[in-house]
């Protein structure tokens, strides 16, 4: 059984105009145009709705699809919403999202054994405002086995009245973003969707913050993180392949926090390239922990690369920069920064990713060992400092203490320990 991705507009409008509520009557409350509104649930053929291309959940995924399929940049423009090829492509994107690796979130597994439990929300012309992934999963199951999944031949919907695009965005934000932005609404899709809306000039930053319940600071951070992610993709020849970074939110958060710790532009650029190598050769939150650690040993990493693995490349870049400083990637390099700029350029060009990652990890491991040694050497001081803090807290808590039993014995033990420590300070050997 083939899938029909939405009926023609004239037929949709006719069938939507003739909608009747389900019997027995059911309703759903939706916050629409600033107030809680009661909508009647109706049923339509599953062929009727079309996917809404402005779905924030798929915004970055659309750019990724365009990049990988080498399509026209305007392939998913909303003006092409009625196009069959566009609807098929959107269905493919939604199918990947619905087929979640987490069984608890996999919509195909869910609808194999469940009925439709929530109505889809359609706009006045039959585009899905909320429920695109659910519609995709139900269509796929019905196409696979029309008899087993006959229950999905008709689906429950509620129909919004004709309204402004901002009203639709507000409904989407309330029903999708507030409920599961930290789960299914990936950071890259969310950030890209916000920037898209800002670029239309139809929304101010304040309006977006209000709609999506985020602070101006969070909005700014998201947009900066998106730009950094795009720089990473460009530098790796993967422009537009946003889904590469779907699980790399923590990596770019850490890079964003660590960069300000470095003073010069050359250091920041070299460190960013180091972080890019970690992102490129690692996966998962534990591996990405190397990003904040590497900023603490950035000079060690530069020296190790310039002294061994990328020695010839760094020397060549250094010579080129010294002979023509105005021709550097970032303009004239200030005194003392040319080494970092040369290392950055050499690192950007290298193809030996595994060896570079090993140099980075070795520098981090060496620092960890140094830190352990310092901690062992200062373990007594650290414990004495902690004990002093505890005693100060105890003094502050005396007015609230009811019983005195046991305190004297504890003080006797503390005084003996203090005496032993002072003996060690005097002659290097504790007493007792």
What does this structure look like?
With 432 residues, the protein is α/β, with parallel strands linked by helices. It folds into three domains: 9-230, no CATH class; 259-377, no CATH class; 379-427. Helices cover 58% and strands 7% of the residues. It is built from 19 helices and seven strands. The protein has helices at 9-17, 59-69, 84-98, 107-113, 132-144, 165-180, 187-199, 205-212, 216-235, 249-258, 265-281, 285-288, 290-295, 298-309, 311-323, 338-349, 353-377, 379-397, 407-427; strands spanning 27-32, 35-40, 42-45, 50-51, 120-122, 127-130, 154-159. The chain has a five-stranded mixed β-sheet. It has a two-stranded antiparallel ribbon with strand order 1-2. Helix 7 (187-199) crosses helix 9 (216-235). The protein starts with 8 loop residues before the first helix and ends in a 5-residue tail after the last helix. The model has no long low-confidence stretch (mean pLDDT 89).
